[in-house]
Every structure is written in C-alpha cells, then in structure tokens.
Specification:
With 197 residues, this protein is mainly beta. It is built from two helices and 13 strands. Helices cover 5% and strands 43% of the residues. The strands form two sheets. It has a seven-stranded antiparallel sheet with strand order 5-4-1-2-3-7-6. The chain has a six-stranded antiparallel barrel with strand order 8-9-10-13-12-11. The longest helix is centred in the N-terminal third of the chain and has 5 residues.
Amino acid sequence: MPGLPEDRCHAVWVRGEKNGNGVLVGKERLLTSRRLIDTYHEASHTLAEAHAPSPSRSSANGSEASAAAVDLIASCSLDPSSCLVYNQTLDFCVVAIPPGFGAACGLVPVSVGEDHRFSKSQPLILLTSTHDPDTGTSVAIRLRVDDWDEAEVCLHATEGSSSCELGSPIYSLSGQLVALVVRPAPRGGVVATRMSA
C-alpha cells in the first residue's frame, strides 16, 4: 500500500473484557481506545496479540490441508503497573507492554503526525484487525474526511463500508498516525480522536 511501510501495516489485536485494536507508539507502549480499557482491572486482564495469515499447508498426498486462516505470532499481557494513562477528552489510553513484543511480531512503533492538518475530502487510510479466521487479520480501508474539530475527525469510506474495530489506527498517505477510531459515526462512518489535537 503506497505511503505505508510494510512493518506498520498492522493493527494489534487487543483482547480482554472488550475486544478491539491498538497500535504500538513506542517499544513499550500501546495506544488504544479508552472504551476498550477503562480501568486498571480491565488493563491487567487484557492481552495484546499480533496475527498473520497462515502459510498454506499440504497433506502427504499433495492436497491442501484445512488450516486456520491466521496464526498467532506473539501475545503478551498488558502492564498497567508500569504505565496506564487516560485522556477522557480525546477518548484514548496508553498502556505499557513488554519491550520485546514489537520485535517478536516484527512491528515497528509508528510515528505520530503531531502537526497533521485535516481538510475536506482528504484521503486517509484506516487499518483494522478483524481477528476473523474467515477473512484474515488486517484490512486497509481508504477513508475521506467529512468533518473535524479540535479533538475529533469524522470519516467515511470512499468505497464500501468503513466499519471497524475500536482503537483502529488511521494513517496519512505518508505513513504517519493521525487519528484513532473511538466510536461509530452516523451513516456508517467512524469518529476518530486526532493525534494532533
């Protein structure tokens, strides 16, 4: 996908009392929606997971063997005792993860587009991990900006649906993280908190 380095084209699956996505913003930090992790207790009972499509496996007679569509690459417990920061206005949270998680799953922390400016109909890319064995793990959806204010941006898919998991990262075409999905929007869009707010 143009503008997005391959090692950033993944959303981390966040699995706990509520499931969704997150993104690495440092070797030991995961950014996700506060609606997924709202308490210390939730954070301490939540896992970060990275998945990848399974390679096709063949049986002894050469035919394709049935296999799950995705493999678990790495999994770790979140570490709220080291770091757990909420921003209720922007609706996100940052929580600590073990430092080896990103390296174990081949993910490089993303750069945050702190000075990113939004404009009407601007193209952005949403990456969402559906964790659906039938459809694969990561889905990239091209979005357009409909409206924005100081804290949030409302977006819709340029084709099809923009439904996605909470905590899904949204990137500029240059590969910088510019927003994070925090809730659905009317008429099938998404509302995301701005990283540049």
